[in-house]
Structure formats: C-alpha cells, structure tokens
Design goal:
The complex is a heterodimer.
Chain A (H helix, E strand, L loop, with lengths): L2 H11 L4 E4 L7 H9 L1 H4 L3 E4 L3 H12 L5 E5 L1 H6 L1 H9 L4 E7 L15 H5 L10 E3 L4 H18 L2 E7 H5 L15 H8 L15 E2 L6 H22 L2 E4 L6 E4 L2 H16 L4 E6 L1 E3 L3 H7 L5 E5 L6 H9 L5 E4 L9 H12 L2 H4 L6
Parallel strand pairs in A: 1-2, 1-3, 3-4, 4-6, 5-6, 9-10, 9-12, 12-13
Antiparallel strand pairs in A: 5-11, 8-10
Helix pairs in contact in A: 1-2, 1-8, 4-6, 12-15, 13-14
Chain B lengths: L11 H4 L26 H14 L6 E5 L7 H4 L3 E4 L5 H11 L4 E7 H7 L1 H10 L4 E6 L2 E2 L5 E2 L18 H4 L5 H6 L4 E8 L3 H19 L4 E7 L3 H4 L3 H15 L3 E4 L1
Helix pairs in contact in B: 2-9, 5-6
Classes of the chains: A alpha/beta, B alpha/beta.
Chain lengths: 364, 261
C-alpha cells in the first residue's frame, strides 16, 4: 500500500469524524483515496475538499471545537498556509491532526521529498509560544499506526499533533498491517466526555462553552501561557519517543528521523561490517525531542552526525542535547535530493577517522 | 423601604417592579455589559438575533461563530455555545462544525472587513457549496475595531483613516456589494439587506433573521442577512447624525430589501 493511502485508510479505521483538505503534490492520494472509499458509508466520516489550506485548517478548528476527531493533510507550501490556524488551534487548546508530507523548499520548491520543515514543525511555525506534538514515521506501517496514536495524544492533552512525513514515505509502497476499525464516538459519548469544554449546543444545565484563543487582559493571557507551558512540560515528561539502534557500544552516533533513519540503518550495517562502531538514535517524536537519551550517549560516544534532508535543522537540537561535550556534525542533501548509506559511511570516515578533519571539532 | 416611605416622592424602587416591566431582555443574551460604542447597531443586531434563537427554542442546538473585529467578543454577550474564529475564517469554521453536526443551527456573525476583505474566499466558497448555515453580516463601511480604516465596503469618496482624502476609486477600488454577488450563487437560498436604525427597520431585520434560521431548519442552503449599520465612532459623527448620514449615503448604494428569496 502507498504511504499516503495508508494514512487515509488508517484515518477511517481510527474513527476519524472529519477530513478537510486541499490537493497538493506529493500527498493528494490521501484525499483521493478517501473520496473513492466513501467513508461516510463505512463509518459516517465526513470528507470535504476545501477551497484552500487556509479554509481546511479552519474547518478542522470548527470540528475540533465540537470534540470531533478532525484532521487535514498537506505538503510544505500548504502547511505554511495553515500556520495561522494551527496557532489558533494550539491557543484554543483543540485536539486535531495535521499531516505534512513534506517536499523541498523554500517557496514552491519541488515535489521531491525533504526534511526542511523541521524548524516549522518543532519550533512553532505560527505566532506565539506554542508547541505541536510532532511524530515522524519512517515506514508505511508507521504512517498508518501514527494516525490513531496522534488522536490519542491530541485528546489526552487537547493539543494539535503533526505527523511529519515526506514525499518519499508518502509515495513509497510497502506491506502494511492495518489496524482494526475503531468505532466513531457517539454524540452521547462526546457529550459525556468532552461536554465540559466542547461547543455541542448549550443545555440548560450548564454555562455556555466558548472556544477562543483571545484573552484581552495581559494578566489573563500570561496565565493562559503559563498553563500551556505546564502542559508542554507534562508532554515532554511523558511522551518523548525514540528508537535506539546499536548505540550501546557506539563510538559514533547517527541521529536521524523519518526517511533518513532508514538510510542510516543501512549505514550502520555498512560501518559495523568494516569494524566501525556506529549506532543510530532515531527520534520518533521530534517534539518533544529525545534530549536526555542523546545527552546520555554523549558521555561515551566520540561524536555525532545529524543526518537530515535539509541544510541542518535538527542538528541544532542535537547540539543542545550534547551541550558541547562532543563534536556534532550535520550531513544531508537538500531540495529533494536523498543521500545514500555509502555517502553517510564516507562522512563518518571523513569526519571522525581522518585525523585532519577531527581537529575541526563541532564546527564544520 | 419603597413600600413604606411616607413622602410623595416616587423612588426608583417604586418604578422598577416586575408588574411595571414592559420589556425584558432575552435570556439568550448574557448580563455582561456590551463593549460597543453608544449608538452602534451591534447591540440591537445581537438582541434580535438572540431573540430569534429564544423564540425558536433552539438555544441548546445553536452554535455561533464570532469574527475578528468589533464583535470579536460576541461570545461574551450571546448566551449560546460559541467559537471565535481567525480573521475572515468564520464561514470555514462554521462549515467544519455544520458538516459534523448537521442537526445543529450554526451561524456566523461578521463585519465587512472580516467577511468581504480577508474572508472573501471563505465567504464565497461557503456560499457556493450551499453550506446549510446562516451568516449575519454587519456592514458599516469601515474597520471599527482598529480605529476607522477603509473597508472593502467604504463608499466612494468616504473619508477614513487610510483614505484621509476620501476613497479614490481609481486608486483604491470600488465599494463591494458582496451580498448581491453571493446572491447569484445557487447554494444561497436567501440573501437580504436590512438595517436596525429605526423600530420599523428592527422589526423587518428580525423577521429576516427568523426567515434565515427557518430556512436552515429546512436545510435549504446558505442564508445571508446583511445589516447596514452605522459606526459613529469611525465615521466621527454623533449617533443621530450617523443614522441620518447612513440613510442619505449608505442606503442609495446598499439598498435595503430582499435580494434573493
């Protein structure tokens, strides 16, 4: 199954109530699959093609404000258009899922895969102090699995969740075990569980519910920000996810997510075959970032390379985690180009096993 | 005390008694003090909208969308579940709600900058899809909240803080009759233009809102009620003068009455 189709099928099976989207390459198959599948007949799920990404994210806002499982998907330029809405959703504390099947930028860029939206996804692409939970799948299987997980996290913390994928994962075909069908929540279940905040129509028994991110008084806005920061601290505490591959005895650690982590898995094998002790630390949540495990590895490892399809974005978080203890390098290609396992191995050799280069330390 | 005082002076307490009440505010409005300027039409528009909600008995089935603009705090005054939307996006938010809860009554309450400038795409496409929602559109020809800047609906020659020498249509374009525009779309079942500056106008405007919600109940498509209103602060006129000016200048360009029914 194609990665994009896996997201769409997983959404139906996750009991999603509404998908609002706008076509953009390389993720158009998500809505195409949904439209062809007619999920309103299968589960009652709504699928609507909006007039723009701006409209789709605001439709998500509306449905999420009614405690419905609402999602959208897009690719880099379209996700840029959604940033205002995402900031509002974070501010109003609404649960939802945004999928970014990223492509090369900046600007209209290219339709080939890229990881250059890391900053936008993890540092808050919109205005204000907010965070998204960002999940980075590295297989078609995870593209499917993370849909349900995203909604669990989104509703647990009333916060927007992003799946940051890329054009290659969206387009590639792999075997996938689809999750069983989860029932959509009934109106009664939603009322019982989320009636204290969702706009479901005000019964006489309660005060009206208001979905807003506006607090005109600075004292109130600061208090709201402090509340959000406490929530983000809880998420950092409880939801950091990562995968460690042969890091225990590693002299050199590759840090890579998504497609790059697949390439680095192979690079680890190549290096080990030549007797070079290389490990891979793969962040699964890009925010919260696995800072502590990387800091732990920095005690024994001799150096790190952040392998990304970008000019070097995640490398900044790796450097913060390593905190100057070891050299941290970036390696990657941009604009839709993908590096190969042998090129990664070459980099390890050049950066760490060549005495000339190792004098350069962390600054490359 | 009011009952037992022995002077022949009438005290306030003697007048304000349940049996003397001739008017009561609907329970669908909260007790919060309106944030609008004295003389502004928003308060009356809020009242008749919420009276319709009360009279139809749909308070528990109604979800409103507040815009960005003077009425951003509409949710402080309207006693129904409400969402506050990003600037111009109310019809998209309303679409998102109505599609997942088609049995609810969903309305947006928007000003002219919100609906006819930054939100034009959302407005036209919600209308074109025939979303089964009601849009209440307050047109006062100016940005009130931000201090009186030119709006898409500002009349030709009208002075605002960003058209200090009057709106020059060659440089700044023409005022937009968006209600006439969306009335051409098959998804729109009802488009009307009303006002709330006289008792007679208020009665007509309320009737129009009733019609709009009734059409929504019948799932007929999108209904839009434009209310041409004043902005005495932005227009820099006393309320009475602003209403006269509105009649003399706004109504000829924005004629009242049903555009599509």
């Amino acid at each position: 199954m194609k990665g994009n189709e896996a997201i769409a099928e997983a959404a139906i099976r996750a009991g999603v109530d509404a998908y609002y989207g706008y076509p953009i390459t390389p993720q158009s198959e998500v809505m195409e699959y949904l439209m062809a599948e007619r999920p309103h007949l299968r589960t009652g799920m709504v699928v609507l093609q909006a007039e723009s990404e701006v409209a789709s994210i605001n439709m998500v806002y509306g449905a999420a404000g009614c405690a419905k499982k609402a999602m959208t998907s897009s690719s880099s330029p379209g996700v840029s258009l959604m940033q205002e809405g995402i900031s509002y959703i974070a501010g109003a504390e609404l649960p939802c899922l945004v999928v970014n099947v990223a492509r090369g930028g900046p600007g209209l860029g290219t339709i080939q895969p890229s990881q250059a939206d890391y900053f936008q996804a993890t540092k808050g692409g919109g205005h204000g102090d907010y965070r998204l939970i960002v999940l980075a799948p590295n297989s078609v299987q995870e593209q499917a699995d993370f849909v349900s997980l995203s909604f669990d996290l989104a509703f647990r913390y009333r916060t927007p969740v992003m799946i940051l994928s890329d054009g290659a994962l969206g387009q590639m075909m792999e075997k996938v075990e689809l999750p069983p069908q989860r029932e959509r929540m009934t109106a009664e279940e939603i009322e019982a569980q989320y009636g204290h905040w969702a706009t479901l129509g005000k019964p006489a028994s309660r005060e009206r519910n208001i979905i807003t991110s506006l607090k005109l008084k600075a004292e109130q806005m600061e208090a709201h920000n402090l509340h959000l920061q406490r929530k983000y601290a809880q998420i950092q505490e409880a939801e950091t996810r990562y995968q460690s591959l042969r890091c225990d005895d590693a002299d050199y650690v590759l840090v890579a997510y998504g497609l790059s982590s697949r390439i680095c898995q192979k690079a680890v094998d190549l290096a080990r075959a030549q007797g070079i002790k290389v490990g891979l630390l793969r962040p699964i949540t890009l925010w919260p970032f696995p800072t502590a495990p990387i800091a732990e590895l920095a005690r024994a490892a001799k150096g790190f390379i952040s392998v990304e399809m970008s000019a070097g974005q995640m490398v900044e978080d790796v450097r913060l985690a390593v905190n100057g203890l070891r050299p941290v390098h970036h390696f990657g290609r941009m604009g839709g180009m993908i590096t190969s396992p042998s090129q990664v191995l070459e980099q390890i050799k050049t950066l760490f096993l060549n005495p000339q280069a190792s004098l350069n330390g962390g600054a490359h | 005390m009011s009952a037992s005082h022995d002077s022949d002076t009438l005290l306030l307490e003697d007048i304000i008694r349940p049996e003397n009440l001739v008017f009561e505010k609907t329970a669908c409005l909260t007790d919060n003090t309106l944030s609008y300027c004295p003389g502004c039409g928003h308060g009356t528009a809020h009242r008749i909208l919420m009276e319709v909600v009360e009279e139809m008995g749909i308070q528990g089935q109604t979800i409103g969308i507040a815009p960005v603009g003077c009425s951003v705090l509409a949710y402080d005054f309207m006693n129904v579940d409400m969402q506050q939307a990003a600037h111009g996006r109310a019809p998209a938010v309303a679409t998102g709600i109505k599609r997942v809860m088609p049995e609810k009554y969903v309305f947006t309450y928007q000003g002219d900058g919100d609906l006819a400038a930054i939100g034009t795409a959302e407005t036209i496409h919600a209308c074109n899809r025939g979303e089964n929602i009601t849009i209440i559109f307050i047109n006062n020809g100016i940005y009130g909240m931000t201090g009186g800047q030119m709006a898409p609906t500002t009349l030709a020659g009208m002075r605002t803080s960003t058209s200090p020498f009057g709106r020059d249509t060659e440089m700044m374009g023409h005022p937009l009759r968006i209600t006439e525009m969306v009335a051409t779309l098959p998804g729109v079942c009802f488009a009307t233009r009303q006002a709330v500056h006289t008792p007679a106008a208020v009665r007509k405007a309320k009737k129009a809102i009733q019609t709009a919600f009734e059409l929504q109940r019948q799932r007929k498509g999108l209904s839009l009620v434009e209310i041409v209103s004043n902005c005495n602060s932005g227009w820099k006129m006393m309320p009475r003068k602003a209403n006269d000016w509105m009649e003399e200048n706004m109504f000829p360009f924005y004629p009242l009455g049903d555009i599509k029914k």
